Amino acid sequence: MNGLVIRTTGSWYRVLNADGTTVDCRLRGNYRLRGNKQTNPIAVGDHVVFDLQDDDTGVITDVADRSNYIVRRATKLSKQTHVIAANIDLLCIVATLAAPRTSTGFIDRLLVTAEAYHIPACVVFNKVDLVDADLAPLLDQTAAIYTEAGYPVLYTSAITGAGLDTLAALITGRTVLFSGHSGVGKSALLNALDPTLDLRVGNISDWSLKGRHTTTFAEIHPVNLPNHSGQTFLIDTPGIKEFGMVDFTVQELSHFFPEMKAVLHDCRFANCTHRHEPGCAVKAAVEAGTINPDRYVNYLSISDQIIADQ
Ligand SMILES: Nc1nc2c(ncn2[C@@H]2O[C@H](COP(=O)(O)OP(=O)(O)OP(=O)(O)O)[C@@H](O)[C@H]2O)c(=O)[nH]1
Ligand SMILES: [Mg+2]
Ligand SMILES: [Zn+2]
Q1: How far is the CA of 272 from the centre of ligand 3 (A)?
Q2: What is the Cα–Cα distance from 89 to 37, expressed in whole angstroms?
Q3: Which of 204, 234, 235 for a ligand 1 pocket mutation test, highest count of atoms within 8 Å of Cβ?
Q4: Hey, whose CA ends up nearest to atom 30 of ligand 1?
Q5: Which has the closest alpha carbon to 13: 1, 2, 3, 25?
Q6: Which among 29, 165, 268, 293 is least surrounded, fewest beta carbons within 10 Å?
Q7: Average pLDDT, stretch 6-33?
Q8: Which tens digits make up the pLDDT trace of 229-249?
Q9: 76-236, superfamily in CATH?
Q10: What is the pLDDT of residues 58-88, one digit of tens each?
């Protein structure tokens, strides 16, 4: 039999069959790990082959090749990586400017990783109902950074329903990974998209305005969005504090900023790092205002981090 891994907890994998039933599976004892760099050999989104046992549990014997996957460092300083999900059609980075505030540094690290792993991405600014006149200019400015870089940007509110039709239209029929800090409203957004989901949503404590890590493991929720036809797979994930990137070099980094990639062939040196080299087309574009300075600053910060980690 074969199916889609929709939940992983400890050594158990919940597999969704084509007929809509699920089987809880374990991994065959001698299953060959793809190297020991990854803490989890199978992630949500993987398509697996399994044998059904007498007790109605399954034993996974094989995993299909992935079209893509997204990884982060297992812990802050770890060399090991954690696969968040596999076979993703779209990454929705859920961000907020109020309670908690998402930095562009965080968004850019996720976007860079999405580019590196060939996953289309969008930025969803949630909790727009909390954006007052004072905050609105900052929201528009931040959103413009990503629109200009070529990413779809949405404004949503899980509370008022603002922007949900646009979000539903963007994600229908796709497998969509929702990622972002704890408390930005990932689970609340999924509930708002499909009220039958009834996912657990956290409380924001007034004193700290920090999320509480309500969602504790990644899970795929198959849904049929109201007013949209086609099966959609929504992946809810636990909030992350920092996004630990892996696996690429300073030389590669600018290729994962689409607006830099578009001009870097005009740099004088083929191995330009766009920091101090003369004749750098990226720096020229920043000075000319066609590349956003915030994105460039985050580029520098990520490349510093890559160098420090080497
Ligand atoms: N005002 C407002 N509150 C929201 C909105 N979306 C979510 N919230 C609230 O924000 C809090 C956190 O929402 P969750 O959906 O649990 O956040 P999460 O991103 O899933 O958090 P983790 O599971 O911890 O990663 C809850 O109290 C929600 O009611 C929104 O659009 N507007
Ligand atoms: Mg959640
Ligand atoms: Zn350059």
Answers
A1: 5
A2: 25
A3: 204
A4: 127
A5: 25
A6: 29
A7: 89
A8: 889 999 999 999 888 887 788
A9: P-loop containing nucleotide triphosphate hydrolases (3.40.50.300)
A10: 999 999 999 999 998 877 777 788 899 999 9
